[in-house]
């Protein structure tokens, strides 16, 4: 360990060959770049993280960059887009839980829990059936094949000649639409 910095020797970075160029460009562009990022990202801490990521990448590549200002803004824009995509990504419902139960089975009341649960299950199944009819046919077909018929995405892909990622996306949109419709009807009772 380097006692002075508290970091292992491998954590120290060599100054770029043209350190004065790096310093000059950062002094000139940092404020403008920071304002650009803060204008795109509401969270100040996240904006600062993006700025630091961009400057670190610039630090590593200073000597190879000719149009430094344009490069910095392009990289910043790409970082902002990447973070926005990560935030929008919502995990797909898993095909099966640990017990092998599907999303539908997991979210419906267990009929063995008594007559109230059996009745609630039948009412929910009726609502799901009605909601399924409002989905685009491609989404409905994937949802029914996977959740009700028990087909895997690999089986559907092979038989329908549609890429698995397309089927996963259709299922995701179907689940999101069904959740929204059922939430509008039943409120927080539906997950």
What's the helix and strand layout?
Blueprint: H1 19-40, H2 44-61, H3 68-88, H4 103-107, H5 115-132, H6 137-148, H7 153-160, H8 164-186
Helix pairs in contact: 1-2, 1-3, 2-3, 5-8, 6-8
What does this structure look like?
The protein starts with 18 loop residues before the first helix and ends in a 5-residue tail after the last helix. It has 191 residues and is mainly α. It contains eight helices and no strands.
Short description:
The chain is an all-alpha fold. Helix content is 66%, strand content 0%.
Oligomer: single chain
Q: How far apart are the termini?
A: 50 Å
Portion in strands: under 5%
Largest sheet: none
Characteristics:
single chain; 8 helices; 191 residues
């Amino acid at each position: 360990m380097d006692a002075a910095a508290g970091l292992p020797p491998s954590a120290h970075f060599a100054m770029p060959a043209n350190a004065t160029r790096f310093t000059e460009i950062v002094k000139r562009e940092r404020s403008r770049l920071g304002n650009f990022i803060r204008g795109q990202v509401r969270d100040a801490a996240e904006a600062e993280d993006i700025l630091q990521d961009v400057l670190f990448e610039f630090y590593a590549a200073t000597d190879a960059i000719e149009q430094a200002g344009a490069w910095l803004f392009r990289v910043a824009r790409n970082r902002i887009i990447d973070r926005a995509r990560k935030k929008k990504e919502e995990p797909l419902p898993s095909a099966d839980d640990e017990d092998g139960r599907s999303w539908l089975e997991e979210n419906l009341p267990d009929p063995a829990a008594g007559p109230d649960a059996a009745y609630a299950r039948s009412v929910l199944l009726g609502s799901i059936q009605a909601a399924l009819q409002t989905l685009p046919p491609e989404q409905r077909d994937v949802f029914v094949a996977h959740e009700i018929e028990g087909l895997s995405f690999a089986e559907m892909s092979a038989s329908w000649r549609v890429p698995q990622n397309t089927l996963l996306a259709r299922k995701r949109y179907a689940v999101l639409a069904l959740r929204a419709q059922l939430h509008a009807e039943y409120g927080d009772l539906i997950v």
